[in-house]
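Student: Hello, beginner here. Can you help me understand the protein record under this note? Any guidance would be welcome.
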Amino acid sequence: MDRQLQAVIDDLESARLRLHALWSSVSRDAWHARPGAGRWSAGDSIAHLNLASEAILPLLRTAVAQAGARVPGARPASRRDPLGWLISKAIAPWSPLKMRSAAAFVPTAEQSAEVALAEFDRLQDALVACVRAAEGLAIDRVTVVSPFHDRLHYNLYSAFTLVARHQHRHLLQAEHAAIECVPLTSAFAV
């Protein structure tokens, strides 16, 4: 496997492990608690990631099929385009930029953590399979339209890296929400 595509798979698997570690370390109350008005709970953040994965997967599959149909002999390359690079910086977990999610990606109903985790795992398997299917294809020559904003277009390699980056941004958000909602025990209370 191409080392850059393997790095994307590693990032996706790292997100899965991070989510399971979070779930095993917080109570159900902390999972569903919102740390403040207008802020998402850990569960909301994972529901958002599941909505985003559901939206991007058909676009990724179509782009992989298009890359496979390209002229034989096209040299495979795993390079982000300038817009993909810029968005990657903007949505990095450490980026101070705050962005509003489009209405289609805002969770509307509380979902049980078990269902959300199973859905995340199912979607993660599908994302990893999609990246694997891109092996040997010129994925820097196929364009994906962002499901978040139809005026944003980037190449397929950028799309793969953005999915993982987006996941880690919201996993950090989920971790912070869960930590903020864990009640202090009397041993730590001031």
Remarks:
- Residues 50 and 119 are 7 Å apart (CA to CA).
- The first strand starts at residue 143 and ends at 145.
- Helices lie at 3-25, 28-32, 42-69, 82-90, 113-133, 156-180.
